[in-house]
Amino acid sequence: FRRAHTLTVLFILTCALGYVTLLEETPQDTAYNTKRGIVASILVFLCFGVTQAKDGPFSRPHPAYWRFWLCVSVVYELFLIFILFQTVQDGRQFMKYIDPHLGVPLPERDYGGNCLIYDPGNGTDPFHNIWDKLDGFVPAHFFGWYLKTLMIRDWWMCMIISVMFEFLEYSLEHQLPNFSECWWDHWIMDVILCNGLGIYCGMKTLSWLSLKTYKWQGLWNIPTYKGKMKRIVFQFTPYSWVKFEWKPASSLRRWLAVCGIIFVFLLAELNTFYLKFVLWMPPEHYLVLLRLVFFVNVGGVAMREIYDFMDDPKFHKKLGQQAWLVAAITATEFLIVVKYDPYTLTLSLPFYITQCWILGIILVLTWTAWRFFIRDITLRYKEIRRQKQEHRHEKDKCLSNGDGHSALLEEPNGSKLRERKL
User: Fold this and answer.
1) Are 214 and 207 in contact (CB under 8 A)?
2) Beta-carbon neighbour count of residue 268 at 10 Å?
3) What is the C-alpha end-to-end distance of the chain, expressed in Å?
4) What residues does each domain of the chain span?
5) Alpha-carbon span 276 to 7, nearest angstrom
6) For 177-219, how does the pLDDT look when each residue is reduced to its tens digit (9 = 90+)?
7) Is 325 exposed, middle or buried (0-12, 13-18, 19+ CB in 10 A)?
8) pTM, whole model, 2 decimals?
9) At 181, is the secondary structure helix, strand, or coil?
10) How far apart are CA 261 and CA 229, in angstroms?
11) GO terms for molecular function, please (predicted)?
12) Cis ω on the peptide bond leading into residue 139 (within 30° of 0)?
């Protein structure tokens, strides 16, 4: 049924596109015709994928919605591959086909400078530094971390990623001036207020979703209009709820998986800033916002697929397709950054920052070796030693009591032990 439905929709869409092209006179503009042809090809592919792609783990608001974002992931990955194989100049100028205002180098804004919370030298507004930092990115930080919490569903992982990204901004501010911020902008406005409040609201939403009863009823079976409206709103909530219990210290496999998730998250966050820098896109451009909306939709599916693969590998024998696409997209974006501006990425870290990162990596590796190798060997040795002691104690007890019903005395050499004792 789905295949016949797909062919019908594709046939109607193809006829509609052909009818439009026949009605109007084809303009003698190569660039316009190329863009129009690419858009029409993408629409046909999305139409095919929405009805034929494999369903993901989510079914609300509708499985077709998540199939659509899966197909968008494929289109975006193909676009990134195309940009990757262009020269630096051609790639930046190609962005003009999307928006004529792009393709122009833009200055990076420095959020550092005067870091006084209260500036007595400014008589009109001593708190001007705070108002200067309160721009449109403050609510973006809050909503971003609210949605990330809904994806990760773990308070500790969210806080680790939030704090780690601030350390990355400290470490890379010599490469991107946009990372240069005041200390209170890093830790008070970002970590505590924006990120922390977003994580808190996200965890409260997760608690509500975990306590909610999921009893779905047909819309036309609900008698009241209020019940119908409530049912329509609940259509955008999960069909059922799965609580994520990552338990990173339970096994080496889960520990490496959690570390990989944190690494990919941080790399995707850095790609946001570096792509703007190398492709000359202003931070407020709609393409930057569309990319964030894209990652919000595909990231939730990818996290669920990763968790299912980790939690039940017997049933989910391979990693989901959306998770693989997100990993490929993140890696391709990083390759674009490396190719388009290798000079910025190869700027050496300050010596004290290098020391801090080396120390942190050594501590993580040391804890990993102790937790999953040395500790296990020590516990196994203690267990074997305890079993030997218990066995020796039972043997001595049997010998001292002379109990004929003991299991030890029922062995072939039981008679010899009895004679020796007598």
Assistant:
1) no
2) 18
3) 88
4) 6-87, 135-347, 350-382
5) 40
6) 888 888 887 888 888 888 999 999 999 998 888 877 666 656 5
7) buried
8) 0.81
9) strand
10) 38
11) L-serine-phosphatidylethanolamine phosphatidyltransferase activity
12) no
